[in-house]
Design goal:
alpha+beta, Jelly Rolls, 2 domains, five-stranded antiparallel β-sheet, 8 helices, elongated
């Protein structure tokens, strides 16, 4: 057999094997109000149907994706779908698995387009970039808690996997309060005003019995149309530096004097939004910038430690991204929110700030303990 033919045969076999690994064969479990005909999954839930989950579920072997990102895409179209007062209800293109370390269930799902919509691609990814997953999981396509009609083209369904979007450094990291923090009196907190703070503000807060105040960094810049990140990021840095200067000048001195702890809320991540979602969760340039600028307030407080300021500061970068990984996963792209927060916490500068505040027990941070054993 000519050498060229052998090479072609090997290449074809390799391609077939790779395709089989990338998109497994699905065995579907079909619910009421759902049918599969010629590769089209039709979910048509009448208005008088009991509230429930209707569609198709496939069992998944997740072991091939260990240490890698996990996602899926499918083409779909939908007619009018009713609106539920529960945020987790609606169109569903969703994974389900558990986190062995925490024991929590995770439901990463696709963003829900406004219905009705013409044929378009739906995308879901776990955003954990190789985080802890159980070896078995499921994929669900359909409707939950609503009525209406949606059609999924199962011939277009693909499992997508690749290198981690943002590597997880400390897969075994367990955070726990030290005894000093755990046994401390509960704090009473308020939001600081957007205007420059004065000494009288903090004296008033002390008179009210406040022991904690939130400094919210808001009104951030967003990229202009067609503006590249190389031009936008210096503007973002200049904006953030201005807020940190005001923090250093108008807030921290009075916080120390009146014994009020400060939570710094970096409320505006770099990059702005695209298609209704913050770009920091899908564009690595902005994720890297978020991790980098998150160290800026930590460095400021570290430098101020000698003056007694650092002990009054807790850094919360993008406060809505700091929740437990799986408890927010029922929201669209919930895992991306958590993944970016974890990426920040795993940098040396972020950990330094938290350790300085006794928020992490060093002995437990380096151990392989489950939450139940703490």
């Amino acid at each position: 057999m000519p050498r060229l033919c052998k090479v072609l045969i090997v290449a074809i076999i390799a391609a077939v094997v790779a395709a089989a690994q990338a998109t497994p064969a699905f065995k579907w479990h079909i619910s009421k109000f759902a049918t599969i005909t010629n590769g089209m999954l039709v979910v048509d839930v009448p208005a008088d149907a009991p509230i429930g989950m209707y569609g198709a579920t496939a069992d998944l072997d997740l072991t091939p994706y260990e240490g890698r990102s996990l996602g899926a895409t499918v083409m779909a179209e939908a007619g009018p779908i009713s609106i539920s007062d529960k945020g987790i209800h609606g169109l569903k293109f969703m994974f389900h698995f558990s986190n062995p370390l925490s024991g929590l269930d995770c439901w990463p799902e696709a963003r829900r387009p406004k219905t009705p919509f013409a044929r378009q691609k739906l995308e879901v990814d776990d955003g954990l970039s190789g985080g802890n997953r159980s070896p078995r999981g499921t994929l669900f396509l359909g409707l939950q808690g609503v009525t209406g009609r949606i059609v999924f083209d199962l011939s277009t369904l693909e499992i997508v996997s690749g290198d981690p979007f943002y590597p997880q450094v400390n897969g075994d990291l367990v955070c726990a309060y030290t005894d000093r923090v755990r046994n401390a009196p509960q704090k009473r907190g308020v939001m600081l005003p957007a205007r420059p703070c004065t000494e009288d503000d903090f004296k008033t807060l002390q008179d009210w019995g406040a022991t904690l105040a939130r400094y919210q960094i808001v009104d951030g810049p967003t990229p202009a149309k067609d503006e590249v990140s190389a031009d936008f990021l210096p503007r973002y840095r200049a904006w953030l530096d201005g807020w940190l200067d005001r923090l250093d000048r108008d807030v921290l001195p009075w916080a120390v004097k009146y014994g009020i702890d400060i939570v710094v809320d970096l409320h505006v991540p770099p990059g702005g939004s695209k298609d209704g979602e913050a770009r920091v969760f899908s564009e690595k340039t902005y994720t890297d910038e978020f991790v980098a600028v998150g160290g800026a307030p930590c460095q400021l407080f570290g430098d101020a430690e000698r003056q007694g300021v650092g002990r009054h500061v807790l850094v919360v970068c993008v406060h809505w991204a700091a929740g437990p990984v799986c408890r927010i996963a029922h929201r669209p792209s919930g895992h991306r929110y958590a993944r970016v927060a974890v990426a920040g916490l795993e940098t040396r500068r972020f950990r330094r700030a938290h350790l300085d505040n006794d928020l992490v027990d060093e002995s437990k941070r380096l151990s392989r303990q489950t939450p139940e054993s703490l």
